[in-house]
Structure formats: C-alpha cells, structure tokens
Amino acid sequence: MTSAEYRVELLRRAVVQYGKATTREQRLHVLNDRSPAAAEHAWTGSHRPYWNCWPIAVELSRTVRLDLPFRSIDHPFKTVLIRFASGHELAGELATALIHWERPWPDGTAYIRVQCLFRNWPVGKATLQFRYRPDDLVEGWLDTLAAEQALPERAAVDELAASGFKLLEQVREPLIRLVVFIGLLAKGKDTITPVILAKDRERYDATDDPQVRAWLERRAARVTGRGFDVLKRLDQERESVGPHFRNPHLCLFWIGEGRQIPIIKLRSGSVVLRSNLDDVPTGYLGKESPADDAPPAGEGSTGAGQQTPIPVGQRFRILRRDGYRCQLCGRSQVDGVKLHVDHKLARVNGGSNDDENLWTLCEGCNLGKGDGPL
C-alpha cells in the first residue's frame, strides 16, 4: 500500500470497530488508537500546513497570560504541523509535533491530540491528548492540567519510562501555550509570513500584486506544503526591534453609522514591533511643525498661492513600499537619518503626486539633489 492507502485502510477498520463498541470507553479506545492516522489524513488533505516556529516565538509564548476561553481562539487549520529550528527543539528534544483540534462531542467536551516526534529519546515518538471545554479559560485549564497530570512515582516505572514521562511533562504545557499563541497571531502579516520557494523569494518580495503572490504561495504549497514562518522577522531583528506582547484584553470599539455605538469586546493578543512604530510618520518621534507637511516653496502651485501637499496616508504608503529606506543611499531611520517622501520629477517642473512619481529619500539626499533631473 501507499502511505495514503494505508491511512484509509486504518480509518476504515476504525469505523468498523467503533460500530461494534458498546461503551464510551471502548469507543474512546478506538479513536485514540487510530488518532495518528486520522490526524495525518486530515493534514495531507489540507495541503500539509505547517508552522516554522522561530526561537523567539517560544520565548514570547511563555510570557503570555492566556486569560481567554478556547472558543475565542481562531485557528486557520484544524490540523497543523509545528516545526522547531535545529538546535532549538522544545525541551531540547521535540523537533516536530502534529496538532489536531477535534470538533466538540455532543456533551460539549473536545480534544487536542498531539503526535510528537522527538530527536534523541529512544522511543522516538508519543501521542498526547488533552480534553477541554470551549468555555474553559486557557490559563486556568493549564493550571488544572499541571495538577492532574503529575509525574507517577519513580519507583513504579522503569528508568526509560521515567525519562519519557519527564520529557512529556516538560513539553506538554509549552506546546499548548505555543499552539494557542500562534492562534492569536495567525492573521498578523508582520508576524506570520508564508514560506516561499527560494527561487521565488526575490520575485515575491518585489511585487505588491496579490494575485502574483498568491500564485507563488500556491506553487510553494504544492512542493513543501502550506508553510508559514512564525516571527521570523522578529527573531532576525531581536536586537534592534525590542518587541513586547500585549495579552488578550477587553477593548472599547465604536461601531454603527457614524461610529457612535460603543461596545466592549475581547481583543486578541498582539506582538508590538517597535520598528513599525518608529517608521510611522506621525511626528511623535520629534518636534513637528505645520510646515512639515507642506511642499517646498514654489512647487505644485494651484493658484492663489495654494499648494497641494502629499496626503499623510500616501506618504506612509510610499515609505512602506520603499522599505523605509532612502532610494539613493540605502540608509534608514536605524542609521539616524530623517526620511522624506519626495518627487522624482519636481512639481515645479510639472511632476505629479502620483505614486509612480514619489520615492523615499533621506534628508541629506533630498536637500542635496535639488530640482534637476538625476
């Protein structure tokens, strides 16, 4: 049999055995016995989604208080593979874990099943399962889990089993924390980015066309699965960015016509990237004067001495497009320069405010180039 045929056969047998079971315990035994095959079957059917967890993701997940119910966690995949960087395995041993979130049973309980693949542990792999209710608060549930699943007496198990229990205890809580943490971040484009084939990376980064990007993502998914890097950028910039994580919290929103109806709802946790805040041209990074948004004298006259400034939203769009770097010298605010959004063809020479005629320059390059062509 092929791998797929074997999984289908295991599931077929499980259906037969489940139908013959007469008690809840027997049915649970059938499900537990076949859960690895079911999880892998569901995983392959959804194009093998996986998260590459960069080391900083594990660090941040440990600092979060998850005071929110399971039902508020919106995971994009019910079955997903978590992969840890070489040399940064969870508890030094867990390299890969296949997570399967099952739908709630009629009595309201649900299960998280985890197939663990360890690097050096002699047994190599193990299956963990956790029962919860959608209304359970994650933090309280983790406390209860720690109390209920304490290590057995060392005298009752042999040395290999004891080491295995100890290892499972070490990975149990941080693994669930990480899974929930990723669920809170799953929609963040700055924190979770798609894995693209190496040969397509330059093209992917150079285009803003969503259709081209989607096509390149699908091509990578056909080869490697639907892969995503969790906090890759943050991990690479950890020394300069200095992030922090905001826990889930209640927040005031204004909705309805005219945004006049106040409601309070739960806001998912978020990673705050200092570099993003630094690059937003709000004026909060230094003293701002009314002249900052005005064009240079003589440019873009609309009659009666009126000027047509570049809108703040358009300035931010150009800064982001250009990677917050001067397009002449390559320097950024990290290098201590002030960035301007300027015209390639000066307005005094007929240049427009269209995006194609705008670029990011540092103050030195902008003041030095003048109005003449480059």
Summarize the structure.
With 374 residues, the protein is of the alpha+beta class. 37% of the residues lie in helices and 19% in strands.
Write the layout of secondary structure elements.
Blueprint: H1 3-20, H2 24-45, E1 50-53, H3 55-62, E2 79-84, E3 94-101, E4 110-118, E5 125-132, H4 138-148, H5 159-185, E6 192-194, H6 201-206, H7 210-224, E7 227-230, H8 232-236, H9 238-241, E8 244-246, E9 249-255, E10 261-267, E11 270-272, H10 274-279, H11 312-321, E12 339-343, E13 358-362, H12 363-369
Parallel strand pairs: 1-2, 1-7
Antiparallel strand pairs: 2-3, 3-4, 4-5, 6-7, 8-11, 9-10, 12-13
Helix pairs in contact: 1-2, 3-5
Structural class: alpha+beta
In percent, how much strand structure appears in the residues? 15-25%
Number of helices: 12
What's the count of strands?
Answer: 13
What overall form do the CA principal axes indicate? Answer: elongated
User: What count of domains describes the coordinates?
Assistant: 3
Spans of at least 5 consecutive residues with low confidence: 151-157, 280-307
Any idea what the radius of gyration is? 27 Å
Helix content: 25-40%
Order of helices and strands: HHEHEEEEHHEHHEHHEEEEHHEEH
